[in-house]
Amino acid sequence: MGKLRFDVVQEAFKKKAIVVEVPEVKTSDYFGALVFGREKMCKYLSSDVFAKICDCIDNGHPLDAETADKVAAGMKTWAMEHGVTHVSHWFQPLTEGTAEKHDSFMEYDGKGGMIETFDGKMLVQQEPDASSFPNGGIRATFEARGYTAWDPTSPVFIQDDTLCIPSVFISYTGEALDYKTPLKKSIKAVTEAALPICKLFDSKVKRVYCYLGWEQEYFLVDEDLFAARPDLMLTGRTLMGHASSKSQQLDDHYFGAIPSRVAAFMRDIEIAGYKLGIPLKTRHNEAAPNQFELAPIYGEANLANDQNQMMMNLMNPIARKHGFVVLFHEKPFEGINGSGKHNNWSLGTDTGTPLLAPGKDAKGNLQFITFFVNVLAAVQKHNALLKASIASATNAHRLGANEAPPAIVSAFLGKTMTDVLHKLLEVPSDTPIEIAGKKGRNIGLVEIPEIFVDNTDRNRTSPFAFTGNRFEFRAVGSSANCGGALSTLNAAVADQLIDFKAAVDKETATGKPLNIAVMDTLKPIIRSILDVVCFDGNGYSDEWKAEAARRGLDTETNVPEMFKAFISPKAVEMFTRVGVYTGKELQARNEVKWETYSKKVQIESRVMGRMAINHIIPAALAYQTKLLKNISLMKEDFPSEADAMSATQKELVRQISALVGDINTKVEAMIAARARANVIEDEYEKALAYHCIAESLQPIRRSVDQLEEITDNDTWPLPKYREILFIN
Ligand code: ADP
Ligand code: MG
Fold first, then answer.
1. Structural domain containing residue 711
2. CA atoms of 13 and 726, how far apart (whole Å)
3. Torsion angles phi and psi, residue 114, rounded to 5
4. Could you read off the pLDDT of 409-457 as tens digits, one per residue?
5. Claim to verify: residue 47 and residue 88 sit in the same structural domain
6. C-alpha 469 – ligand 1 centre gap (Å)
7. 371 C-alpha vs ligand 1 centroid, how far in Å?
8. Is the CB–ligand 1 distance for residue 456 below 6 Å?
9. What is the model's pTM?
């Protein structure tokens, strides 16, 4: 590849931004054009059908077959106006990304011709030949069918020539085989558990909503440089590569001017996103070179998560038009920031009251404190589980690796809220909680300063941070489906809220006024969370690791081991109680998690071995041969001075031999370890074996990176960090 690398680098560097086709109308005019939302339903459905589908979406009432047929007919008319020819249930299996199986609208018309058809049955249910999706043994061959069923709460959309129907994916026996089903169940659990508590404060509340605002971080890499790196192509990250002399130490990338090729790409994905009704709001450079972020306005959690998946699907095909590849891997490059997907999470009522923001008066503030404290109690109780919910082979490179987030789930409250909680413990339970300044008096009150929302200080090292009107679950990986983390968070919070409501009811039954009953119930919880889960210091420090262990927080760093939290009796009981997962589902999903972990590490290990042997060693030996030739020539031409003149060359020859030998030995050991791991039947045990293999990649990398440092730049076959990270 030698010379070729330079050609590729030159070509990549010369690429210019392409002109983006911007619609001639303003954004609000085409926003949602490719989504069958309410406005379209109103236009394409009769008023009684429209009313029935709205009732189904808003109140969860079932849709009868006749109405489903009519809805399908309206969708078909709309879709065909957009040149759509195919239809697909669009679902989120336990792999990365989404799945779809396209069927055309075509049917025989019985008169020798063809006709486009799409009816209620096709809309509501499909039976994908799905025996090859991960299922953790739930689908034995005799029950190999899987079913996808329409989720009417997420609107149907058009992708190219296909009408996509957001769907859940379940087994013949009803177990969830996807991320959407448990997410929906968890939203139901947490909003239903929150409702009776809201009613204590305001009898007019009829419904609670769960919100998600995701922030998607990603890297862009020039596609030609990407193609020259087998590791990026097959694993999504660089398995080797010496650090660039300049990386992110100047802090000049975060919020820097967006390079023109990147800006064109961003414009393009925004246009595509807007057409799909995704309210994209923020775009900026992230901390690392060639790292960026995209975030929409938050929305209802199930829909927001679908929209995140839709964006992830869109980004790569559009990036290719701009000569880029998008990397969603959590840690594509060593030594610089990795990518996360912050999940901004909150609850709110149908009366428009946010439940995790200070209220309008003392009562509202008490409601806020109630939810705030209970969320933290849930995070404390299930901290090991929440960590397991974001753990993966790829996110493992962020977890505990001296970068956000540490492998300990604690919560950051900021000074204001920490002070408020301490004060609440000191004052009588009937002390009103006021927002300072609003009432012009502050004696005897527990104050929440008005500037509070803008004042939430940041702690980038915290995996779970309060940010004024929401919690930000920062530990979620950039490649993850938010459903995994949110199902766990929602379930844990639901469980806690149920217990809390029961405790308050007990107190009020004795005749205590509500505010005192609530505060009396909250106080021991506040004491406990301040002692255990709340931590405002540096989450990366070694002192914190020791302190967290002392506090009883989970400090496990081994990913396959972390997954065990999901099948602990405590977790099974909690998930079953709130109706999010059954014990069978938890076991099956863990099998999938372990299996996926092993396979990912297996692929990395194979790629590492092959690259080391086929790319790196030959390049190093070629350079060594050059050195040896130089030494020979030296002897011929300068016989008396040759020894002194060839000292450096000889030293390099020795170093290369040593490193090549070292790499070869380590690769052989890794291959042998793989052979031993591959015969292990039990998925958990196998994943543990693969965890050791994952750790063995690092020493190989060290030697390869040292070779990169001393090997002739001309001979080095792989695009270097300085090239991949700085060309855009
Ligand atoms: P930052 O990087 O400072 O955290 P961003 O603006 O990049 O902030 O992202 C914040 C995300 O949080 C956005 O998606 C925003 O819509 C979302 N968000 C704001 N308020 C809430 C809320 N109450 N509930 C859920 N998400 C929210
Ligand atoms: Mg954020």
1. 597-724
2. 9
3. -120, 155
4. 999 998 889 999 999 999 999 998 887 655 544 456 788 776 565 555 5
5. yes
6. 9
7. 19
8. no
9. 0.95
CA 304 vs CA 180, 182, 199, 295, 659: distances in Å: 11, 15, 26, 11, 50
> Could you give the 3-state DSSP secondary structure of residue 553?
coil
Residues 567-603 pLDDT 10s: 999 999 999 999 999 999 999 999 999 999 999 999 9
Q: Is the CB of 213 under 6 A from ligand 1?
A: yes
Confidence of residue 301 (pLDDT cuts 50, 70, 90): very high
Q: Is residue 371 within 6 Å of ligand 1 at its C-beta? A: no
Cα 97 to ligand 2 centroid, rounded to whole Å:
23
Instruction: Indicate if ligand 1 lies below 6 Å from the C-beta of 297.
Output: yes
Separation between Cα atoms, residue 53 and residue 73, nearest integer Å: 13
**Do 207 and 134 have their domain in common?**
no
Is residue 211 within 6 Å of ligand 1 at its C-beta? yes
Task: Determine the distance separating the centroid of ligand 1 and the alpha carbon of 689, expressed in angstroms.
Answer: 39
Residues 99 and 155 in one domain: yes
| Residues 201 and 105 placed together within one structural domain of the fold | no
Q: Which of 231, 242, 274, 69 is CA-nearest to residue 722?
A: 242
472 alpha carbon to ligand 2 midpoint, in Å? Answer: 7
Q: Can you give the CATH number for the domain in which 602 is found?
A: 1.20.120.1560
Mutate to test the pocket of ligand 1, among 280, 470, 482 (most ligand atoms within 8 A of CB): 470
Tokens of 510: 């004795």
Helix (H/G/I), strand (E/B), else coil: 679: coil
Query: What's the rounded Cα separation, in Å, for the pair 304 and 96?
Result: 17
Centre a 10 Å sphere on the Cβ of residue 69 and count the other Cβ atoms it contains. Answer: 19
Q: How far is the CA of 200 from the centre of ligand 2 (A)?
A: 32
234 dihedral zone (left: phi>0; alpha: psi -120 to 50; beta): alpha
Which ligand 1 atom is the nearest neighbour of the CA of 345? 25
Q: Give yes or no for a contact between 392 and 597, defined as CB atoms under 8 angstroms apart.
A: yes
Q: What is the pLDDT of residues 529-539, one digit of tens each?
A: 999 999 988 88
Kindly state if the Cβ of 344 falls inside 6 Å of ligand 1. yes
Residue 228 CB neighbour total at 10 angstroms = 21
My answer on whether 172 and 217 are in the same domain is no
- Of the ranges 253-257, 309-313, 477-481, 519-523, which one carries the lowest mean pLDDT score? 253-257
Which of 173-177, 450-454, 698-702 is predicted most confidently? 698-702
Task: Please count the other Cβ atoms lying within 10 Å of the Cβ belonging to residue 116.
Answer: 14
User: Is the beta carbon of 330 within 6 A of some atom in ligand 1?
Assistant: no
**297 Cα: distance to centroid of ligand 2 (angstroms):** 12
Our answer on whether the CB atom of 560 is closer than 6 Å to any ligand 1 atom is no
